[in-house]
Every structure is written in structure tokens, then in C-alpha cells.
Amino acid sequence: MDNRPSAVRLSGFLRCASMEDVEIVKGHLPDHLRLTRAEPGCLSFEVSQTDDPLVWRVEELFVDRAAFDFHQQRTRTSEWFTATSTIARDYNISGPEKN
After folding, report:
1. pTM score, whole prediction
2. What domains, with CATH codes, occur in the chain?
3. What is the pLDDT of residue 95?
4. 46 falls in which pLDDT band (50, 70, 90)?
5. Distances (CA, A) of 46 to 61, 93, 99
6. What whole-number distance in Å separates Cα of residue 22 and Cα of residue 49?
7. Could you tell me if 78 and 28 are in contact, meaning their C-beta atoms sit under 8 angstroms apart?
8. What pLDDT, in 10s, does the model give residues 48-91?
9. How many Cα neighbours within 13 Å face the side chain of 53?
10. Cα(79)–Cα(69) distance, rounded to whole angstroms?
11. How far, in Å, CA of 31 to CA of 25, rounded?
């Protein structure tokens, strides 16, 4: 765990409604992981299927709010977001608030 006072952590779940959603996640996840992990300020980024095949655990850690906000902005215009936009997300974000 990173204890940097400026770090921003997102933790939660991606909840698929069907096996079709699962296949969408599986198809787009490798590029999403690669692109996110290459972002400046990304300390860790993990998305893994849980024991429930419809539920994916998401753990993100960014060095600071600016890096996290950059990730959010980049993701919103990505193929990943377009393909998975109807899949429910249940996330908690902790760390410094926006200035």
C-alpha cells in the first residue's frame, strides 16, 4: 500500500449484467490495462474477475489528483469507455480532493 499523502486510490467493482458484458470486458481489458499502466503517475492498476464471473474488482492508485484526473479524462474518450459504458460501476475514491 502506498502511504503518500497526495496519492489517490480508486477501489470497487465493475458489475456486468450478462456474460455478453463479461466478453466485452475481456475483449477490451488488455488494451485498457496497458494504456493506463503507461500513464504518467499511475502507481498501480488492477482489474480482476472475482469468484462471481459477472463481477470484476478494480484497484487503482495514482501518485496525485492530477494524475488521477488525467486518467479519468483519457478514459472517458477511450474505446474501453465506449464499449463498457453501460456496465455498472461501484467505486470509492480516496485521497486529496480537487483544488
Report:
1. 0.88
2. 8-94 (3.30.70.100)
3. 86
4. very high
5. 9, 15, 27
6. 9
7. no
8. 999 999 999 999 999 999 999 999 999 999 999 999 999 999 99
9. 8
10. 18
11. 11
What three-state secondary structure class fits 87?
A: coil
8 Å CB contact between 22 and 97: no
The residue among 30, 27, 8, 14 whose CA lies nearest residue 85 is 14
What is the helix, strand, coil percentage profile of the chain, to 5?
A: 35, 30, 30
Distance in angstroms (rounded) separating the CA atoms of residues 69 and 42: 11
Best CA proximity match to 36, nearest among 65, 8, 1, 71? 71
Helices 65-76, 19-37: inter-axial angle, 10-degree rounding: 130
Mean per-residue pLDDT over the chain, rounded: 94
